[in-house]
Amino acid sequence: MRLNPSQARAFAGLGYLRYAQNRFTDAVPSLERALEIDSDAMSCYLLARSLLRINTGGAGATSVPAGIGTPPWRARARSLLARAIELQPRFAAPYVTLGATHTGPDGDVAAGIELLQKARAMLPARMDIAGNLVYLFLRKGDFVQAQALVDTVLANGGDPEALRAARQDIAAFWEHVQARQSLHATRPTPEETARQEQARAVTERMLREILATTKNPQTRAQVEKMLQPTESMPLGLDYNFAVEVFNEAVERANQRDYAQAITLLEGLLPKVKDPDMIDRIKTMLERFRQDAARLQQTVK
């Protein structure tokens, strides 16, 4: 390289060597230099993979903090992978990796499915591709396609771990659907809400009358403490608000944004008074934490 600093293949080779040694940070400058001289599909792919490994430890499908959108390194990686496909359309690896990046919260489900279906046509024995397709079909709401892939491909693919993960994804989605349905089934009717509001108002009026007449410090302290819940959100509004936040958390979890899903439910829990809703939130929080831990274990 000292003799011929414009030799792209030399920089690409050095970048590949460092990538193969898991020295991803060291690989980046060499691969960047190779692409400056001559853009080739392999260097684009290896640079994209290096950026993903540096920032996520895997294919780049881990959670993006809420409100951040797509981080610059992931946008660059996707651009490099798209360029690799453009330069060499029969090079399967960029389809696999680019498709996998769309399993994250900022992913494009339709684009991910299209990429992974093309990858699977070239690499039918790769069960990780089928597994990511199962997840994206679930995100799309196509349970039939997701289940068909599990039953006809993954069940016969010889990869027990990929099969187990896909079945867990399906189980999690069905659990989320059932949780949402049960919330709607137990939502108070307008008549029940009106009765609850009336009872709350009567209780509050009685407590305020006691507070206005008593001189006992202990009694006053007890009544003031009892008044605090009645001055919070009305029961009907409390339940409806909780359902909205709960559904948003489930949607985040469906996008594998477990950090935000957990944050939403942890923030909701102390605001809810309904015992049944509290139990549902605690149950779902535990599930989200387990699923988040499982996702972290699968990131290579």
Q: How many E-type strands?
A: 0
Mean pLDDT: 83
| Number of contiguous helices | 14
Major sheet details:
none
Provide the number of structural domains. Answer: 2
As a percent range, the share of helical residues equals: over 70%
Low-confidence stretches: 230-237
Provide the β-strand percentage band.
Answer: under 5%
Helix-strand string? HHHHHHHHHHHHHH
The CA-CA distance between the termini, in Å, is 33 Å
Write a structural description.
With 300 residues, the chain is mainly α. The protein folds into 2 domains: 8-123, Tetratricopeptide repeat domain (Serine Threonine Protein Phosphatase 5, Tetratricopeptide repeat), CATH 1.25.40.10; 181-298, no CATH class. The chain is 75% helix and 0% strand. It has 14 helices and no strands. The protein has helices spanning 8-20, 24-37, 41-56, 72-87, 92-101, 109-122, 127-140, 143-152, 160-185, 190-213, 217-230, 235-254, 258-268, 275-298. Helix 12 packs antiparallel against helix 13. Mean pLDDT is 83; it is low at 230-237.
Brief characterization of the structure:
The protein has 14 helices and no strands. The chain is an all-alpha fold. The chain starts with 7 loop residues before the first helix and ends with a helix.
SSE layout and pairing:
Layout: H1 8-20, H2 24-37, H3 41-56, H4 72-87, H5 92-101, H6 109-122, H7 127-140, H8 143-152, H9 160-185, H10 190-213, H11 217-230, H12 235-254, H13 258-268, H14 275-298
Helix pairs in contact: 1-2, 1-3, 2-3, 3-4, 4-5, 5-6, 6-7, 7-8, 7-9, 8-9, 9-12, 10-11, 12-13, 13-14
